[in-house]
Amino acid sequence: MAIGILAMAAIGIVMTRPGLAPAQFFPLYQLHKSVGITILLAAILRILWRLTHRPPGLPADMPAVEKLAAHAGHFGLYALMLALPLTGWALVSASVLHIPTFLYGAIPWPDLPILSALHDKAPAEAALKAIHATGAFALIALVCLHAAAALRHHFIVRDDVLTRMLPWPQHPARRPKNSKIEEQRS
Q: Are 108 and 102 in contact (CB under 8 A)?
């Protein structure tokens, strides 16, 4: 997810710069839309996983304000991981250009029916473009803040918050019980 989000930010910044040649414009927009829909689907799966699997708790000695900030940050990340692809999809659907979306150049993706049927799309497109861009910069800021907080915990506070985020079982709370590592320590 992080790699996809960073790629989307980079592609979004490049494709919206003035003077981009039409030969570069179209493939970048199609790639941006393809990765955006992939992130939307991955975010839905991630949220379903999170609802069925509790993450490790935050350290007991973490100040309450930091716990609140961590929970708010995670909520914001999940909300934006859903909202940005949805607003992007809405933006494409309301576009006056009527350019179809083909995920990774192969899979046709439909427009949202209500927005694609608007008689005057320009105001909706302009509003959605502003919302999408604002959300994108908010997500970039939140990702940077999230990374900075994780690095702060690892290098300054020196707790295990960062290592608990890793996908492999390095943290005791994430290790299966009765593992060989547990047996070797005993």
A: yes
